[in-house]
Amino acid sequence: MMWMWLTCIERETGTPKEDAYLYYCKKFLLKRIWVGEKTTMVYSTSSKLNTQQMTEFLNHIQADAAAELGITLPTPDDLHWEAFFQQYK
Q: Are the beta carbons of 61 and 49 closer than 8 angstroms?
């Protein structure tokens, strides 16, 4: 589903889906780590997430796409899912 959403974002905005993915990873999976006395900010990728974390990540992407891009990303329980699925599968 995430890659279908990212394909939709790519078609609607012109941003390559791989770039949109990295954008969302940096926006929502950013954390501060400490190495000795130094700290830095790093971000993870979705492959490191458990089911609950992935659900939260997807919810953030869905909300951000709606608020920032004006794009509605349906889920399988939405009325428009089948049409979306056929278009972006």
A: no
